[in-house]
């Protein structure tokens, strides 16, 4: 699972609220689509859990479902309280998990 | 042609979902909130609210396109008016696609550290339908907003 | 037979007109703004990031600039001018492509760079090539496409050939690119979808491909997109990298000359 975290805007200070965008490359199979070649139903395969942690403290927890688009994008806000590390843990229903982090570096 | 059958697939959801119970339940057992991957708005709401009433409110703003170019990628944005302080904040934002087989799209559990109660993503819509956003407030009330999205099958490939 | 297909084409055009009247089914400004905003979070950004890794490990900007005969600083301007004619420098023993004085696309120039470094030369349709080209084109982001179709005899020939291919009716329905993208028909609807003016600033076609196609949930290159268009219009697909396909890319890129390059794009 390839992932990417974006923090917007690029420059921010302690006390600012920034936007956190998390993207993952994932098929998000609904379990209802038939394979074109075999005619068999493609088993459901989707990200079902995404946890955002800042300095190892829970920021936001998500339970997600197959109705999210393929290669989903999840955006939330975060009030910058200090410098540190934002970690995103994503897991899918087949048990594959991935950890992505981004440095939070407020200026001034 | 492909797209049409994809849409149909979404419509004939119950039939298909019945075919893959094992996968679905394996995925869901790990979570308390869920049953099989087929769920109506009523039961999805009941699971979250525990029977409490959900009030439509202007404090919840939901943006989604009135007309979606493509049902497979529909942008949805929710923001809820709240100070996001330790005593008064938005506990969760839930997004539902009311006519999908499994109406649940995402349950987002926020904390005051979010600063603002916002959530944005992209969802699949099987057909023209209402998208519903429910905000769970820290005082135990539930506020909602909904918007109808028309799904077209436009274009040349 | 030919008459029949023209009739069919006219009939479908007439249908477009009817649909055009259904203003209720068109997106309003707020909807369009929402879709435009989505390009900020483009899933193809992950493909571009992978392309960057590939490019840096296999070629690198310095080596690539050498192949193009420019400095690293001049690289973005150079990239913004593709397809362009490249000439071999004698010190490289290119094995690919064979004829060196020819008009090539950005992907083909990367093939040349790979060959010059004795690396495996990816095929044009390969995923690696798609990602790498997208990254290299993104080096020219915020610049304007500066293709020069008068630069030399070869480019002059290619733009003429490209226009001929654009306007040539082919396939079972006797359609050409021009059937749906001529100036007098753009803006009308094909199955609810507005036909884009390929040269306009709003469409910015050549400068916004590679793009993430929402209908396919994947990043697609400009030439690949044109192949998909041909397939749907029942035309035989021109092979990637063929003289005809490159010519078509030259012609359509030139239609949108001066538009700002923004890679990756986000398309329906």
Explained architecture:
The complex is a heterotrimer of chains A (108), B (157) and C (268). Chain A has a single domain (3-31, 41-104), classed as Immunoglobulin-like (Sandwich), CATH 2.60.40.10. Helices cover 0% and strands 50% of the residues of chain A. Chain A has strands at residues 3-8, 17-24, 47-54, 57-64, 73-79, 84-92, 97-104. In chain A, strand 1 (3-8) and strand 2 form a beta hairpin. Chain B has four helices and nine strands. The N and C termini of chain B lie close together (10 Å). With 268 residues, chain C is mainly alpha-helical. Chain C folds into two domains: 44-138, no CATH class; 147-267, Cytochrome Bc1 Complex, Chain D, domain 2 (Orthogonal Bundle), CATH 1.10.760.10. Chain C is 48% helix and 7% strand. Classes of the chains: A mainly beta (108), B alpha+beta (157), C mainly alpha (268). The interface between A and B is large, with 39 and 47 residues. Strand 5 of chain A pairs antiparallel with strand 7 (117-123) of chain B, so a sheet runs across the interface.
Q: Helical percent range of chain C?
A: 40-55%
The first-level CATH class of the largest domain in chain C is given as Mainly Alpha
What's the number of structural domains of chain C?
2
Radius of gyration based on Cα positions of chain B = 16 Å
Contiguous helical run count of chain B = 4
Instruction: Give the terminus-to-terminus CA distance of chain B.
Output: 10 Å
Number of strands of chain C: 7
Oligomer: heterotrimer
Q: Biggest interface and its residues per chain?
A: A-B, 39 and 47 residues
Order of helices and strands of chain C: HHHHHEEHHHHEEHEEHHE
Characterize the main sheet of chain C.
3 strands, mixed
Percentage of residues in DSSP E strands of chain B: 35-45%
Major sheet details of chain B: 6 strands, mixed
Name of the CATH architecture of the largest domain in chain C? Orthogonal Bundle
Give, in spatial order, the strands making up the sheet with the most strands of chain C.
6-5-7
CATH superfamily of the largest domain in chain C: Cytochrome c-like domain
Overall mean pLDDT of chain B: 80
């Amino acid at each position: 699972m390839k992932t990417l975290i974006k923090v917007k805007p690029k420059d921010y200070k302690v006390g600012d609220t920034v936007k956190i965008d998390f993207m993952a490359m994932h098929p998000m199979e609904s379990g209802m689509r038939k394979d074109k070649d075999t005619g068999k139903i493609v088993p459901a395969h989707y990200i079902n859990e995404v946890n955002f942690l800042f300095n190892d403290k829970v920021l936001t927890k998500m339970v997600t479902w197959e109705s999210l688009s393929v290669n989903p994008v999840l955006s939330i806000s975060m009030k910058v309280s200090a410098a540190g590390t934002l970690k995103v843990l994503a897991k899918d229903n087949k048990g594959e998990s991935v950890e992505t982090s981004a440095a939070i570096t407020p200026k001034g | 042609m492909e797209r049409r059958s994809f849409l149909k697939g979404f419509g004939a959801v119950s039939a298909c979902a019945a075919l893959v119970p094992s996968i679905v339940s394996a995925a869901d057992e790990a979570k308390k909130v869920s049953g099989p991957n087929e769920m109506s708005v009523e039961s999805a709401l009941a699971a979250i609210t525990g029977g409490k009433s959900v009030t439509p409110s202007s404090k919840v703003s939901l943006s989604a396109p009135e007309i979606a170019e493509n049902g497979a990628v529909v942008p949805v944005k929710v923001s809820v008016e709240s100070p996001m302080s330790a005593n008064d904040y938005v506990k969760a934002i839930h997004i539902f696609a009311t006519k999908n087989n499994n109406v649940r799209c995402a349950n987002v559990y926020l904390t005051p550290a979010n600063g603002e109660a916002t959530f944005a993503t992209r969802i699949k819509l099987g057909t023209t339908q209402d998208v519903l956003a429910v905000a769970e407030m820290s005082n135990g009330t539930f506020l909602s907003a909904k918007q109808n999205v028309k799904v077209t099958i436009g274009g040349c490939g | 037979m030919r008459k029949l297909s023209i009739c069919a084409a006219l009939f479908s055009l007439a249908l477009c007109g009817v649909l055009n009247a259904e203003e209720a089914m068109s997106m309003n400004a707020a909807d369009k703004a929402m879709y435009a905003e989505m390009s900020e979070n483009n899933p193809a950004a992950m493909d571009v990031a992978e392309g960057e890794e590939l490019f840096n490990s296999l070629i690198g900007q310095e080596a690539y600039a050498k192949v193009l005969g420019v400095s690293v600083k001049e690289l973005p301007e150079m990239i913004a001018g593709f397809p362009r004619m490249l000439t071999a420098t004698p010190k490289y023993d290119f094995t690919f492509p064979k004829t060196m004085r020819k008009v090539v696309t950005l992907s083909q120039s990367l093939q040349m760079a790979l060959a010059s470094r004795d690396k495996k030369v990816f095929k044009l349709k390969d995923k690696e090539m798609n990602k790498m080209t997208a990254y290299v084109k993104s080096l020219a982001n915020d610049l304007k496409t500066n293709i020069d179709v008068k630069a030399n005899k070869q480019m002059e020939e290619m733009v003429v050939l490209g226009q001929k291919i654009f306007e040539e009716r082919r396939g079972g329905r006797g359609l050409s690119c021009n059937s749906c993208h001529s100036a007098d028909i753009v803006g009308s609807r094909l199955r609810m979808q507005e036909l884009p003016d390929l040269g306009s600033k709003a469409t910015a076609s050549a400068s916004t491909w590679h793009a993430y196609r929402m209908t396919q949930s994947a990043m697609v290159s400009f030439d690949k997109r044109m192949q998909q268009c041909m397939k749907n219009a029942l035309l035989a697909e021109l092979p990637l990298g063929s003289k005809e396909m490159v010519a078509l890319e030259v012609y359509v890129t030139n239609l949108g000359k001066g538009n700002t390059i923004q890679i990756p794009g986000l398309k329906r």
